[in-house]
Design a protein that fits this description.
Distance between the termini: 32 Å
Number of helices: 2
Length: 65
């Protein structure tokens, strides 16, 4: 999951670079299972597909202009 998360983040960075955003302004960080928004499992231990879908995300932070 960590590798997939990093690849997803890098894909977004590549997309932004192709559209003119300077490379030195971007950092790709994939967090894998370390920072989920919601649990990947339900309280009974069964899989939570909706939770997994919500955790497949990309977040952008604008630090300065």
């Amino acid at each position: 999951n960590q590798e997939l998360s990093q690849k997803r983040a890098q894909s977004v960075v590549n997309w932004l670079i192709e559209r003119g955003v300077a490379t030195n302004r971007l950092v790709a960080r994939g967090y894998g299972e370390s920072l989920p928004l919601v649990p990947n499992e339900n309280a009974d231990g069964s899989d939570n597909p909706e939770g997994r879908q919500k955790n497949r995300r990309t977040e952008l932070r604008i630090i300065a202009q």
